[in-house]
Amino acid sequence: MKTFMSMLIITICLVSAPLYAQKIGKVDIDHFLTEKKAIIKETVQFTEQENKAFWPLYDEYVQTYAKLLKRRADLEKGLFEGNESISEKRAKTIVDEHFAIESESLKAKLSMLKKMRNVLPEIIVLKFFQLEEKFEAGLLYQFADSQPVVK
Asked: Could you give the CA distance from residue 80 to residue 4 in angstroms, rounded to a whole number?
């Protein structure tokens, strides 16, 4: 568990460096996902059979997840464009996009859950989703920390 926490802290730091450097919520999504995959491999410690069942599902899931992360990063970046007040119309667009991303993210997770439950032990499913929530919480913290409240 200590190894996981150390790796999670390193991942958060790697993600946060571009955030603070540019102060616009720009995240190197590919780097984040690479680090995340390495931590999953080390933490879950799949059997050979579990490994063969999990990674194709994960790769499929990550295709959707990466697109959602990029949309979220673009949305966060959009909040900083033109530092003046945001119009009611723009505010509505931002809120609608935020919840569309949240909805699609939940759908992707539920789809992954269903597929994993068909081929993996429940303890592996739990471990994966525990890690998934930790990664997401760290990333969302970085987005939130770099974002001022709109005027």
From this structure: 33
Instruction: Return the residue matching tokens 């190197």.
Output: 28
DSSP state of 79: T
Q: Rounded distance, CA 94 to CA 46, Å?
A: 40
The per-residue b/e assignment along 36-45, b for 16 or more CB within 10 angstroms, e otherwise, is: beebbeebbe
Compute the Cα dihedral for 94, 96, 97, 99 and give only its sign: positive
Nearest to 78 by CA among 28, 26, 31, 30: 26
The predicted-structure confidence for 63-88, as pLDDT tens digits, reads as follows: 999 999 889 888 877 776 655 678 88
pTM: 0.76
The Cα 85–Cα 30 span in angstroms is: 32
- Cβ pair 15, 142 in contact under 8 A: yes
Nearest to residue 91, comparing CAs of 79, 74, 76, 104? Answer: 79
Q: Which amino acid belongs to residue 91?
A: A
Rounded CA gap, 119 and 87, in Å? 49
